Amino acid sequence: MSTGNAFERRGQSLENEFFHRVDAQLAAELRARMEAEEQQAELAKVCGVQNAEVVAALVKAGIKPQTLAAFSLVPLVRIAWADRMMAPEEKAAILRAAAESHCEAGSAAHQLLESWLGHAPPASLFETWTHFVAEMKATCDSGHFDQLREGVLKNARAVAAAAGGFLGIHTISAKEEAALAEVAAALHA
Questions:
Q1: How far apart are the first and last CA of the chain?
Q2: C-alpha 33, offset from chain centre
Q3: Residues 110-115: what's their mean pLDDT?
Q4: Lower Cβ count inside 10 Å, N or C end of the chain?
Q5: CB 125 within 8 A of CB 34
Q6: For 142-160, how does the pLDDT look when each residue is reduced to its tens digit (9 = 90+)?
Q7: Residue among 29, 60, 41 nearest 128 (CA)
Q8: Contact predicate 141/97, CB 8 Å
C-alpha cells in the first residue's frame, strides 16, 4: 500500500467530514428558520397582528401564543422596575393583575412573568410592547382598544402606587411617573 494513496483517502475522508458538518449546519439553520416562521404564523393568528416585523420581534423576545397573557403585563413590569428594584407590594399588584388577565399560576405565561418579576427584562421588551400596542390600536375596534387602554393604565397606576411612600407623601417616584408617562404615550399614540 502506498503512502500517497493513504493520504488521498485521508484527505477525501476529511473533505467528506467537512461537507457533512456544513450540510448539518445548513440543515439546522433551515429548521430554525422554518420553526421561527411557523411560530410567527401561529402567533400572528392568535394575537391578530399581521405586521411581520412586529410578530418577528415578539418571537425574538420569546413570546409564544401560550405566553401572550404575560406579554400584556409588560407595562406593569416596566413601571415596577423603573427605579431598578421590585418592591414586594409592586410584585403583589402585578400578580393581582395577572390573575385578572387569565395569566394562571403554573402556566407558561405565569412562569415567564415570574422571571420578569425576579430580574428586570431588557428595555427592548417594552419597545416591542409599544410596537405591538400600535398595531393593536390600528387593527382593533376603538371601543375595545379604549377598554384595553383604561385597564392597562388603571393597573399601571396601581403598581406605581403600590410601594407607597413615606406617610403617604410621594407615593409614586419620579422614575415611576416617567415610566407611567411612557406607557400612557404608547397607549395614546
A1: 79
A2: 19
A3: 96
A4: N
A5: no
A6: 898 999 999 999 999 999 9
A7: 60
A8: no
